[in-house]
Design goal:
single chain, 274 residues, mainly alpha, 13 helices, transport, ABC2_TM, membrane, transmembrane
């Protein structure tokens, strides 16, 4: 535990000392929030706004905001793993690999460091809620926090695995840039992903962001106040083989996904030190 804590603490401090990186990780999510929230809100609200029961109004920004938070988690989690390659360049990674700390603990410490940074930035996105003209129940915001951290862990494990195989920051950034946008657009973060071609639907179902976004929307949005037609139109009925997936199953998938990728990264660390 001391080894995990030391690695976690170092990565968190290192990130918050880099103000340019801290600011840059907010740029893309806020840009998407302005584009999709401001540019598409009128069209989407006119199309499905009348589907709410009880005379309520549908706010597209309220629908897309959990997806923007998930995008923040994705970008920060994955790009935080760039520190692994930087540690390889400066020799720090070699030092901890030859230390008594087990490879599993090294991988867990790195994953938790990136996850914590991403989680804190995701929470900071909540500060924008009053300025967006939307509102969420404070209880819902508190309930969504554990799911946000779990999603951050799953996404950090992706960056961890990629970084464990690479020695070049340029190669890491290239691979991550190719992965990030498809993971965002094929997750339901910004628009529904229902009725897609079969091959694309497979990608949607194996994408960890899909399940994280779905859980966050179910917790943050009052889905019980939406008609079945609206829930279907907005992709809130995520299903596999015609059966709707439960929140428990989505959490189980993210836990399994994280565990598998951390173990694979551990094997990669062992190979690199062989």
């Amino acid at each position: 535990m001391e080894g995990i804590l030391a690695i976690w603490q170092r990565d968190v401090k290192k990130f918050f000392r880099d103000r340019a990186r801290l600011f840059g990780s907010f740029t893309m999510p806020i840009l998407f929030l302005l584009i999709f929230g401001g540019g598409m809100s009128g069209t989407m609200e006119n199309l499905i706004g009348g589907g709410m029961t009880g005379g309520g109004d549908f706010h597209y920004v309220q629908f897309v905001f959990p997806g923007i938070v998930a995008m923040t988690l994705l970008m920060t989690s994955v790009f935080s793993s760039l520190s692994i390659i930087e540690d390889k360049d400066f020799g720090y990674m070699k030092e901890i690999l030859v230390s008594p700390i087990s490879r599993v603990n090294i991988a867990i410490g790195k994953m938790l460091g990136a996850s914590t940074v991403a989680f804190l930035q995701g929470v900071m996105m909540f500060l924008l809620i009053p300025f967006l003209g939307i509102s969420y129940n404070i209880t819902s915001l508190l309930q969504v926090l554990p799911f946000m951290f779990l999603l951050a862990c799953a996404l950090s494990s992706v960056g961890l695995l990629i970084a464990s195989f690479l020695t070049s920051t340029q190669g890491f950034q290239l691979i991550v840039q190719v992965l990030v946008m498809p993971m965002v657009f094929l997750s339901g973060a910004l628009f529904p992903v229902s009725n897609m071609p079969a091959w694309m639907d497979v990608i949607v179902k194996i994408n960890p962001v899909t399940y994280g976004v779905d859980v966050m929307k179910k917790v943050m949005i009052d889905v019980e106040n939406l008609t079945p037609a609206v829930r279907e139109a907005m992709g809130l009925n995520l299903s596999i083989f015609g059966r709707e997936i439960t929140v428990f199953e989505e959490v189980l998938f993210m836990l399994s996904f994280t565990t598998i990728l951390v173990l694979l990264a551990t094997l990669s660390f062992r190979r690199s030190n062989a």
